[in-house]
Amino acid sequence: MPKSKVRKKTDYTLDPTNRTPVKVKAAPSSTLYLSVMFGFMLLGLVYLIVYYLAQDDIAWMANLGAWNLLIGFGFWIIGLVMTMKWR
């Protein structure tokens, strides 16, 4: 039986000497970014505390009802998500 020809496949791997990884050093976050990040987290915490303590005394807060939880946790989560970009 005749032997089949072996096809030569071209190797498409990149030459490692051409692609040396370069570590990009990111600058630290500015104080404004940190202030806004911690501000959102504190604002959410203070909003929730005020809601639980004085929900019946503040008319517009009483009208919002359970939406106050969404507002308070929303501010807090925005600050928490901002921590992912913090350097």
TrEMBL record:
Main location group: membrane
Keyword tags: Cell cycle, Cell division, Cell membrane, Membrane, Transmembrane, Transmembrane helix
Transmembrane stretches, start-end: 32-54, 60-82
Any single biological process term in GO: cell division
Topology relative to the membrane: Multi-pass membrane protein
Cellular location(s): Cell membrane
Stored InterPro entries: CrgA
Family of this protein: Belongs to the CrgA family.
Protein name: Cell division protein CrgA
Organism, as annotated: Rhodococcoides corynebacterioides
Higher taxonomy: Bacteria, Bacillati, Actinomycetota, Actinomycetes, Mycobacteriales
